[in-house]
Amino acid sequence: MRSILCFGDSNTHGQIPGMGPLDRYAREQRWPGILQAQLGAGWHVIEEGLSGRTTVHDDPIEGAHKNGRLYLRPCLQSHAPLDLVILMLGTNDLKVRFHMPPSEVAMGIGCLVYDIKELAPGPRGAVPEIMVVAPPPMLDDIKEWESIFAGAQEKSRRLALEFEIIADSLEVHFFDAGSVVACSPADGFHIDAAAHEALGVALAQEIEAIGWADAAG
């Protein structure tokens, strides 16, 4: 059996658009659950989504535990061996409090990739496959979140290109979630159940294209 770690923020946790962080879709509706169903019994898909998670930043308001880099290493060791690590982060880095341009958000993703490679939590101590997923761009109307994410909408539209550049330079896989889904107008930056399904299906196809699906089954 092959193992996949899905490491992300509220859009991996499955937060329902327009609702609070404790309101989430059922496991079988969330994209990691869809991914599990698509790939089948030869795969073990592990969800690690946290609302508000950043790439590498301690959050001065929500807490240092929202720093993805702090949690990634123990998470990798906890679930090792891993055949694939999927990283889908970046939206929370665009909050005004962090003052991050898209290029530096991508550098944060690059730090996580470096950490995975250094720790090498794959089978027999190898480096696992790594896939960087760019989150879908935010909508212009983000409701009451405008003051927290002021200016983030334009930055979010540039994340995919910056993420692809960093993924190519580090020789890891890349997928643009915005190519198959859009954020919900309910709040402008979370994805709804239909988008979770579309993303899970698309990622399953990307994973199978790596060329190991037959061996896993």
UniProtKB/TrEMBL annotation:
Keywords: Hydrolase
SUPFAM superfamilies for this protein: SGNH hydrolase (SSF52266)
Record bears the keyword Repeat: no
A Pfam family assignment: Lipase_GDSL_2
Entry's Gene Ontology molecular function annotations: hydrolase activity
The keyword Transcription appears for this protein: no
Superkingdom: Bacteria
Name of this chain's protein: SGNH/GDSL hydrolase family protein
Organism of provenance: Marinibaculum pumilum
